[in-house]
Amino acid sequence: MGRSPDDFISAIDGLVRIVRELRSPSGCSWDREQTVESLSPYMLEEAYEVADATAKGDMKLLQSELGDLLLHVIMSAVICQEKNEFTLRDVVEGISSKLVRRHPHVFQKQSDLSVSEVEQQWEAIKVSEKKDEGFFASIPSSMPALQTAWRIQQRASEVGFDWPDARGAMSKILEELREFEDSLDNDDTDAQKDELGDVFFSIVNYYRLLGFEPEAVLRANNRKFIDRFTKMERILRKAGYSLDEADIDMMENAWQTAKLE
How far is CA 37 from CA 66, 79, 246, in A? Predict the structure, then answer.
């Protein structure tokens, strides 16, 4: 904070030089053998850790996790430069150009747009740039299925393919549940799986129409369950029981105590 642009450029340049040293013949054998393909799972993991730090509101942790993610971005760019594919400068100039191009209300003609209007404009420009790839082509195939479902529905809503309100989505959930129950009357597991998938997809849509991002809500509930289970385990341990030794009634009592805490 309060530093000059030159300080920032110097810091980035220093990190690039470290990465290049790590990948040099006298550097690190692990870093030297990495490819963009081998780094991809690690980059995805770092992105999730950034999301976790954000959800926790831990700014010190967020600073650290953003650094880890930045390292993977820079290392991937350095690897591509080594192969004469593109440079880190190309990456920066590319995203800068895209931001200007997709914000004409800021950089071309000054105008106030609502958040939803900005999103619609962004998607319209993106579609015009990728018109030969299909409407959903920009959604990464490797993105988690829950997040993908939410993004598909969000995108479809931007062209008017949507329920008027959340009540319509709730009716759809009930309809899909009835169809799933009907599928249970036979032994067709493929039909059951398909109908349950429809239920899941409809629930995601209901979340979206209520203004919630299902991935974030489920992540928070996962953390809540883990926290309570850990408390339950501690309560049982104080009573002299391990998880293997406790029966379901003991676990339930400890769980209720954990909830009260």
Answer: 20, 11, 45
pLDDT at residue 191, rounded to an integer = 94
C-beta of residue 231 within 8 angstroms of C-beta of residue 168: no
CB atoms closer than 10 angstroms to residue 153: 22
215 closest CA partner among 3, 52, 2: 52
Other CB atoms closer than 10 Å to residue 181's CB: what's the count? 11
CA atoms in the 13 A half-sphere facing the CB of 189: 0
Return the pLDDT at 77: 97
Which residues, at least 6 apart from 251, have a Cβ–Cβ distance to it below 8 Å?
232, 236, 243
Q: What Cα–Cα distance (Å) separates residue 215 from each residue in 51, 110, 190?
A: 11, 35, 26
Residue 43 neighbours by CB under 8 Å, 6+ apart: 69, 72, 73, 76
For residue 206, give both structure tokens: 């209901």
**202 near 172, Cβ under 8 Å?**
yes
Q: What is the mean pLDDT of residues 201-207?
A: 97
